[in-house]
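Run log, item B.
One chain of 766 residues. Sequence copied directly from the ordering sheet:
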Amino acid sequence: MNKKTKPEFVNVGDVILKYSRHWKWILLSLAIALGVGFIYIKTVDPIYYIVSNVKLRTDEEGSKVASSLVRSFGLGGVSGSDNIDDEAAIISSQSQARNMIYSLGLQASYDLKNFPFDKSLYNTSPILIEAEKSILDTLSVALKFEVEVVEDQTVIVEAFYRRKKVGQYAGALPASIKTDYGVFGMDYSKHPIADNSYDLEIVLSGLNVAAEDFRGRISVGAIDKSSNIVSLGIKDTDKQRGIDILNKLVEQYNHDTKNDKNEEAKNTANFIQERIALLGKELEILEKQLEEFKKQNKVMNMQIEAESFSTQFHDLQQKTTELDIQRNITNMLNSYVTNPKNKNELIPTNTGMPSNASESIDAYNAAILERTRLLENTTESNPIIKSLDERIAMLRENVQASVKNAQKDLSVRKKDWGSLEAEMQTRMSQMPRQEREYVELERQRKVKSELYVFLLTKMEETQLTLASTTPKAKIIDEAYGISKPVAPKKKNVLGFALLLGIMLPVMVIFIIDLFKTKIHTKEELEEATDLPILGEICLDKNANNIAVAEGVTTSTAELFRLVRTNLQFLMKKDEKVILVTSSISGEGKSFFTVNLAISFALIKNKKVALVGLDIRNPKLGEYLSIKQKNGITMYLASDDMKPEDITIHRPDLHPNISVIPAGPIPPNPGELLLGDRLDELFAHLRQHYDYIIVDTAPVGMVSDTFSLNRVADNTIYLFRANYTNKSNLKLAQTIVDEGKLNKVALVINGTTTKSAYGYGYGNVST
């Protein structure tokens, strides 16, 4: 359908006026939305943010106390470093979460039912539920227990998985609740409540299910890339529960890391202790041999006698001793590594091995610790453990290779020093036999003695490290809750409720308007067509069937005068006949035609003829209480009647109005309207009247009105608000495009919008 070509713009005032007419619905929606918002704020548990900051010590910092003591005795230091991101991941790992949940009993949540003010209970529930850890380890669903406590302390329990009942119990506590998922114990706690009867809802989850839920709420991460400080945070409706969760995670982390370090230190101490005992026995044998040698040879101090040679031989002896110490340590470590009994055992560290061998041992020990940690939550048949075993085997081979390489290197060095020693021994051959034997025994004793002292030193260092193991995570800020809840935020909730309360009815009204099939306002008519629109007739509950009269200035009367004025602008000087039609019946043609005729009669000295030509369904005569004995149908069917015979003067309407009713319904209305008698009638009316207003049949139902186009000058096409379908606009445009009616202009009848005059509303008769 063609529309007016005009610039498109949105009149904000019109939009506001359109929706302001529904202010009652908007106000009701706003009140409901704000009420729901207030109820939500009052009933929902506030969510708090709990935070804790800890500093993760590196191995060097963690051993600071031990290192200072070791250095004070002239012993070696310890060093190391950790990846902060890895440590943060360990803190928030699934295994840590499982242990934390089981320790705090968070696998079960308790809610005291008092709709709508349900209360979550943490460590204050009057009833507790318990389950074997084996059940919690394998439980992969969340079970809900609805507990009702009546006044006689009888407890009624129903267990559900989703909506399916999986168990029930009625009786006293303590009790065992049998379900499809196992047996659960239930008993009163040390926190009774004042009410004798109450309802409690318990949700019990498996450790893995609960761990996944809590891990999703816990955040762990370094505060920045270069910092060792890690921030832990959690959102929870219970501040104390959130504080306990974060503190327990840090506590568990410190406990686990301390156990790892202690285990490694204990293993090293055991290794050194075994070697000290062995060297003690060897030293005892050597010292007895020296004692026996002195007795047999009656020598008090061979060293004084060989002082001159010892001075020269001292440097070579010192170097040889150090080399022998390293070889002995290497041989002892090789025996330990190659012993099948020590498979999957930690290899002693900090034993003075070359750097490449120490690195292999550190990598092997790290893998063993990782295997031990994983076995806490799984079995050796796990593919991850098997893969790790293969890696450990490779690392053990690397350690063995490194130790053997160290042995070869020391052997080569020993050979070199042996050549030098051979030269010195050649010189010693010149000394008495006793001196040579004494020196040999003394050298062996000194090697064993220094090795013994070295191992004692390492033993003390290990014991000091073990005794002074400090927590891995140093707490900077203990867990604390932010004072104001992070949700729900009152301003945001009320703001959203306010917006929703306004937008929801607006959207509903917009959607209703979008799917409306009826024409409602003059503005809709103007937007939908480019045909001229004479005006609108608003409803007026105080108006009668005759709304226009001399001296009447009601809204309806003024709107009819406006339509008359607009129509006069369209009519040429010699045009008199005005057809009034519509698409369907019931659109108010009779009411409009009568009052339009009266409005023209109000013009001074203008005579108006009101003609009823809806001869199939005549309503004009009935509307004006005219009996249908004579009328147009009688005139058209007879050659003897004259126009004066069917014309009725109606001074009660106005002195200048005459009415020609339709008359009885004929059997052949279409043929009557095509006859010459109709042309003769309108020729007579044009001679004696200034305006001829014709009430015709609806064009959407019959074609009679098109037969009248030959006698008409102008056509008023009437629509009725909230009654006429929008599809009828297309019918009107088609009629105009095909030229079936002359000079068509539109009027919308029965609108409920206030006119520009500001008059009230009412009902219109048809």
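Observations after the first pass:
- DSSP finds 25 helices and 21 strands in the chain.
- The longest strand covers residues 48-56.
Flagged for discussion on Thursday.
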